[in-house]
Structures are given as C-alpha cells and as structure tokens.
Amino acid sequence: MDALLRARLLHLALFISLLLSVLSHASSQELQIVNAERRIDLTSHIIKVYLTLKVENIGASPASEVNLAFSPSEVEHLAVVKAAATTGKKKKRTYVPLDVKSSEQPAGPNGTKYFTIILSNPLSKGETATLEVLYILTRSLEPFPAEISQSESQLVYYRDSAILLSPYHVKQQTTFIKTPSTRVESFTVVEPTKRASTEIKYGPYDNQTPYTYAPILVHFENNNPFAVVEELEREIEISHWGNLQVTERYSLVHAGARHKGVFSRVDYQTKQGNIGVSSFKHLLARLPPRVHSVYYRDGIGNISSSRLRTDFLKSELLIEPRYPLFGGWKSTFVIGYGVPVEDFLFESPDGGRYLNFTFGCPLADTVVDKLLVKVVLPEGSKDPKAVVSFPVEQRLETKYSYLDVVGRTVVVLEKRNAVPEHNIPFQVHYSFNPIFMLAEPLMLKFST
Ligand SMILES: *[C@@H]1O[C@H](CO)[C@@H](O)[C@H](O)[C@H]1NC(C)=O
Ligand SMILES: *[C@@H]1O[C@H](CO)[C@@H](O)[C@H](O)[C@H]1NC(C)=O
Ligand SMILES: *[C@@H]1O[C@H](CO)[C@@H](O)[C@H](O)[C@H]1NC(C)=O
C-alpha cells in the first residue's frame, strides 16, 4: 500500500468516526415529559388537538429538538402541526412560534412517524421547557352506522390512544375529549376514565414508558355537515388593466354517513325536528371585500338564489344548491368574481410586482382533499416566485387565451389536506416588462 492511499484511508476512517459521533450525539439527547395535557376537540368534522408538553432534558448534552410521534393513520390525515414555546403564567404568558418539520428519521415501533420541533433556545442539562402544540386531523371520524335515513341522527367513531404516543418517558398525563353533544353511545374505559356532560377525561396516568399505546374507541353523535371538497381549483387571473378575476371550481361531497332510502322533499321541507339534521342546505363562502360580478353556477346553469353581503372587511356569499346535500351526495359548481387589482397587486422594491392573496378554501368549515391555486400572470411576466408559509408543491404551466401572443405563465400551487388554518396570505412575485402592456390594446384594435 503506498503512503498516499494509506493517508486517504486514514482520512476516510477519521471522517466516518466523526460522522458516527455526530449521529450518536444527536440520538443521545435524552428527554422526558414531566407533564402532558391533551385536549381533543371533536365538535366539528375537522379534529383539533391541543397538546401542552412540559419537557425536561435529563441527558448530559444540550437538546435542541423535540419529537412528536404519530401513528401511520394519523400522519395520513394530518393537515397542520404547529408549535410554540410558552413562558410565564396566565396573562403574562408569551408565545414564541417554533419551526416544526416532518422528520426524515426511520419509522419507530408499529410504523410510528415523527415531526420534529426545533427549539430556538437549546435546553441545557436539567432544564425544562413548556411547548404548546396544535395539530389538526381531517377525515378521521368514521360514520357508524355507515348509512342512515333522512330522519336519523349521524353517529361516528373516533379512534385514538388513551395514552399519548411518545418516544419519551411521560411522568404524568391527562387527556380530555370534547364531544359536540351529550349523546355518547359508548367509549373505551382505561382506568381512570370519567365522563361528564360533553367531556370524557382519560387519566391522570403516571410513568408511561415510551411508545405505550392504549387503543380507545369513542362512539358519539356528530351532526356537523361533513363538507369535503375532493378537488378545488382556484384560478386567479391578474390583468394590469384593473381587474383580478377569480374562478373557483368545486367538487364537493358530504363525507358523513351515506343517505339511505328515498329523499323526500316534502318531509324535508315540512316536518320539524330531526329531518336531515346532518345534511346541508346552504354553503357560506367568505370572499374579499369589494367583490363585483359575482356568479354561482352548477352543471345546469347560473343559480340566482345566492345572497351576497359585503362590508369593508369581507363579503359573504350564502349559496343554496338546487337540492340539500345528504351523506355521500356530491355537488359540482363554480363560483366566480372580480376584485379591484389594486387591492391585491403591489410594486416590489426591485420594480417588479407581487400578488398578495388568500390561500385556502373560501367555504367555511371545509376540508379540501386536493387544492390547486393557479395564478395566471400577465403576458410578458418573468421569474415568478411564490412565497407560502407552509409546504406546497409548485410547478409552472402556460395558458393561452384568445388575445395572447406568447401565452401566460401560470404558477400552480398544490396542497393536499387543506383546512381553514390554510386561509392565510401568500405572495407571488414576478418581474414585468411594461412593453407588453401595449400588446393587448393593439390586438384589440386589430380584431375589431
Ligand atoms: C405495537 O406492536 C406491538 C408488538 O410489536 C404490539 O404488541 C402492539 O399491540 C402494537 N400496538 C398497536 C397499537 O398496534
Ligand atoms: C352566469 O353569470 C355570469 C356573470 O353574471 C355570466 O358571465 C355568465 O355568462 C352566466 N352564465 C350562464 C350560463 O348564464
Ligand atoms: C398581505 O396582506 C395581508 C392582509 O391582507 C397583510 O397583513 C400582509 O402584510 C400582506 N403581505 C405582504 C407581503 O404584503
């Protein structure tokens, strides 16, 4: 072996041992959860879980990451995971939002997946931190019975673990489950378990080892309209001529218990009481203020029974489909409107432009399985860049319309599992050559 090769091998060995020590250092961060309180809100079909964790570093080295564990089925339905560090008590409490990322580390026992919270101040040996976590699950209530008649109430199953799934030892923990009404058919008991009014309390449980899992099943009434948009395409077309045209194509389904038997409009319209309690007659769309030329149409044509209310802050469009929507029924429709471009288009410091609009679905209390937001830039726009505060898939397309010479760039943003928490501003920046502004009126002149 020549000297050079030997030196290289030595180098490599050193590098590998360094790598191993870094890796073992990362996994040697030892934490325990001193106290965990979990509040599961089942009052809607969108499940919100508020988790308060008091975390302690019981290892020797500083810890900068805290892992949250989720079962494989939870991960599939997770729409949002947010975390903040809190300090102080009651009114003086302060919140510092923390980064949370889906973890690359291999799955744990029973396919457990992780999300990692990055602490802004690493925890030294013996220190504790209080973290507040919010996670949101969609499509996690199973209607049972799966089919109900027009006059029946909707009952659903919720599955979870009485004991928090965690990679850490948990010294003490309690879980509270809130149901929409006092009608609870059954719930699994994991002593101590108590039920009072619309709340079921699991725990306190002491000293649970990592990955302890105690399956529970709660069977309860939930007559919320299970409004799920299987696909929503929102096209936002920017024209420097003063208008922003928005076209939204919805395919909506009532994802609750399937409707059984014949639908009786007479029963639905005349009888009091329980008729069609889980169905929906109206949908509420929250649109920007100053909307104009609002329309709502389905496969048959324009529907004029919608009502629009506007004020300085928002517009509300109450839409009434041609028939009420029962479990399993679908409705496809289009909402269109225009807004003044100056409300949403701004000049950036570098001379370019940017659109600042709301992401998400304008319909209240709705889950979107697949959301496509398409921003159609004016002809001649270049270097588009989207800024969204949560992960989305991005791609570019080209759209040609009647008057276009070179086609228009379309920024396509795709998000799965969108919930109302995603209705927040996003931006699309682009640069623009004003010469193209002349193209449209010239074309107009020649084509008349
Ligand atoms: C997890 O796996 C263990 C054995 O590998 C099993 O005993 C346990 O029941 C599983 N838990 C769940 C919730 O599936
Ligand atoms: C529906 O109304 C919109 C706006 O008022 C209009 O542009 C469109 O042509 C109408 N569509 C039909 C099918 O009547
Ligand atoms: C976008 O609009 C929201 C309000 O609608 C505003 O709070 C935010 O600062 C705007 N963002 C940018 C980058 O202009």
Describe the structure using short key phrases.
single chain; 448 residues; mainly beta; Immunoglobulin-like; 10-stranded mixed β-sheet; 7-stranded mixed β-sheet; disordered C terminus; binds 2-acetamido-2-deoxy-beta-D-glucopyranose; transmembrane
Would you kindly provide a written description of the structure presented here, covering whatever features stand out?
By secondary structure, this protein is mainly β. The protein starts with a helix and ends with a helix. It has helices at residues 3-27, 72-77, 265-270, 439-447, and strands spanning 31-41, 47-57, 63-70, 78-87, 94-102, 113-123, 128-137, 141-143, 147-149, 155-161, 169-178, 184-187, 193-196, 199-208, 215-221, 227-239, 243-254, 258-260, 283-287, 292-298, 307-310, 315-319, 330-340, 345-347, 353-358, 367-376, 381-387, 393-399, 408-418, 425-432. It is globular, with a radius of gyration of 27 Å. The protein has two domains: 29-221, Immunoglobulin-like (Sandwich); 227-443, Sandwich (Immunoglobulin-like), CATH 2.60.40.1730. The strands form six sheets. The chain has a ten-stranded mixed β-sheet. The protein has a seven-stranded mixed β-sheet with strand order 20-23-17-16-26-29-28, with no helix packed on it. Strands 8-10-15-12 form a four-stranded antiparallel β-sheet, with no helix packed on it. A hairpin with a 3-residue loop joins β16 (227-239) and β17. Helix content is 10%, strand content 51%. It binds 2-acetamido-2-deoxy-beta-D-glucopyranose (NAG) (3 copies). The site of one 2-acetamido-2-deoxy-beta-D-glucopyranose (NAG) has 3 residues, from β30.
